[in-house]
Amino acid sequence: MFPNYLFARFSLSESQTIVHYSPGISGIVRFGQHISPIPSSSILELREFLGDEGIKTLQFELAEGDGVSIVDGPLTGQDGVITKLLPARDRVRVLLEFLGNTREVELGLLAVFRHTKPTGT
After folding, report:
1. Cα–Cα distances in angstroms (integers) from residue 86 to residues 5, 34, 102, 109, in the given order
2. Among 14, 16, 109, 113, which is least packed by CB within 10 angstroms?
3. In sequence order, what are the residues at sequence separation of 6 or more whose Cβ sits closer than 8 angstroms to the Cβ of residue 68?
4. Please, what is the Cα angle at 30 between 24 and 35, to 5 degrees?
5. Residue 116 has pLDDT above 60, yes or no
6. Model pLDDT for residues 45-84, shown as the tens digit of each residue
7. 46: which residues sit within 8 A by CB, 6+ positions away?
C-alpha cells in the first residue's frame, strides 16, 4: 500500500533535519509546505490490517462492464466503463464521455481503478 515509505515517530522541531538527510530517505511527505502528522490510531489500524508480517497483497480483477475512474495520464478524473480487456498488452479499452461525445480509449491497466462491480452481478 505504501511502497518505499517508512513511518517514523520523531519530534519534528528537534529531528526534522536529521530525518530528512538520513541515508535512504528522499524526503518527508508534505502537502504543499505542510507536513501532516499521522495519528497514532491510523498507525494502529494499519498494523491490524497488515498483520504480523507487515505485508498485505491486494488483488483486484477488472472485467468488461466494470465502471472505472482514470487515475493516471491526461484523462485523470474521468469515469468510464471497460469495454475490452487486452491482457497480453496489460491494457484495457474504456468507453467514456469526453467533450460531449462518447469515445473508446485504450489505457494501461494501472491507469484505471475499478469503482463498481461488473454489470449484471
Report:
1. 32, 41, 20, 9
2. 14
3. 62, 79, 80, 81, 82, 92, 94, 112, 113, 114, 115
4. 105
5. no
6. 988 888 888 777 766 789 999 999 999 888 999 999 999 9
7. 1, 7
Range of the domain at 33: 1-58
Task: Answer whether 88's CB lies under 8 Å from 70's CB.
Answer: no
Do residues 25 and 6 touch, judged by C-beta distance below 8 A? Answer: yes
CB 67 within 8 A of CB 79: yes
Residue 37 — pLDDT band, cuts 50, 70, 90? Answer: confident
The CATH number of whichever domain residue 85 belongs to comes to 2.30.30.30
Same domain, 71 and 51: no
CA distance linking residue 39 with residue 55, whole number of Å: 20
